[in-house]
Design brief:
The protein is built from 8 helices and no strands. With 179 residues, the chain is mainly α. The protein has 2 domains: 100 residues; 79 residues, no CATH class. α5 runs parallel beside α7 and α6 packs antiparallel against α7. The longest helix has 22 residues. The protein is globular and about 55 Å long.
């Protein structure tokens, strides 16, 4: 699935929304979280600068425009309101097809066989979370479910190419992952 070229405006809009909200929080809070907030704000400002220098979102690797949003969600110091805005942004990216099936594309590409076990588990886990995220609409959850099915099917077709030790390790890791 190709990224729509006009998607740059969607990403720029979401960056501006999050920057405004984050600056508002920083303005009214004065505590030890300020340093981490400034780093997160800086990552969005840097992304904004990069987006202003390109004309088409296809010129940019999706992981580059996603990383500030994911960093924000992972941060322990981020407020629930800001995390919600970041999740809504990612949902919008999915619904506009900017990152739709990104995980699936990564796994199914010829380079996908070079991913580490940890990377594969992270990708599968992320897709699995999308399947059960009640805040996402049903269409997006179904899309994530279909991607997960494709990835699981691919992994089982690749099992024959694993050495015996890697098969045991991989299956053990998958079992632990779902427990």
């Amino acid at each position: 699935m190709d990224i729509p070229g006009h998607g740059i405006y969607v990403v720029q809009g979401e960056v501006n929304i999050l920057l405004t909200a984050m600056r508002k929080v920083v303005r009214w809070s004065h505590n030890h979280q300020d340093d981490e907030n400034e780093i997160l704000i800086r990552s969005f400002s840097d992304l904004k600068d990069v987006l202003n220098q390109i004309n088409d979102l296809r010129e940019m690797d999706p992981s580059h425009f996603l990383s500030p949003f994911l960093e924000l969600i992972r941060s322990r110091m981020t407020s629930a309101q800001i995390i919600n805005l970041a999740l809504l942004s990612i949902t919008k990216f999915l619904s506009y097809g900017l990152i739709g099936k990104l995980f699936r594309s990564l796994m199914l590409s010829p380079l996908g066989k070079f991913l580490t076990n940890d990377s594969v588990c992270d990708i599968m886990w992320s897709c699995f979370k999308f399947c059960f995220e009640v805040r996402l609409n049903e269409l997006l959850r179904k899309c994530a479910e279909n991607c997960l099915k494709d990835m699981v099917q691919l992994l089982f077709t690749r099992l024959s190419s694993f050495s015996e030790d890697r098969k045991k390790y991989f299956l053990l890791k998958v079992v632990k992952f779902y427990l």
